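Data card: per-record layout.
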Amino acid sequence: MGLLDALFGRSKQVQPNLDALFALPTAALTLEASAQMRPTGVGAVCFRQVEGGPFARLKDEITTLLGGAEPEEHVDDYGYTWLVVRRDPSQMSELCTDLHAVNSTLEAAGFGPSLLCTTIGLRADSGQGLALVYLYKRGTFYPFAPVDAARQQRDNALELQVRALVGGDLNIEPDVSRWFPVWGAPGL
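The structure for this 188-residue chain is written out next.
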């Protein structure tokens, strides 16, 4: 970053670090031990829709990488596409490897600018859902705890508690204004 960048308030863009996804199993263990939250076995990669033949071929390649398990494709109310990967909840490491493969494949094919986030779902014994969200363009994580999607209510206290619990495991996004809600995210 140069002097003019500093004067005009420009900052160097953070590069995504997809290997950070491999810290999620440790964070999940921390949440299971401290907050009785367990993985749902569902993770998803969210991106802007890409049309046409190249994406269809890319989805075939992703299916091959996932050992023949085709990811579910879900389009949310905002027009974003989610590629959903399911594993047994006890296979958190394998789920993270699958999500890394999906992200890496999309990135290598030139769809990196379309990537928005990656989520993994957790659920408390009480039924409260939680997502650990990886912001692709920031290289950071944050928790999202929806309470009532219809009324767009979330449990901010739980989100702050989770931040404190997994702050040693994950690179948490320091700017809470960037903790945007992912209503309708698969796995919640």
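Known properties of this structure: The CA atoms of residues 48 and 80 lie 5 Å apart. The beta strands are 37-48, 72-75, 80-86, 115-124, 129-135, 140-144, 146-148, 153-154.

See the next section for split statistics.
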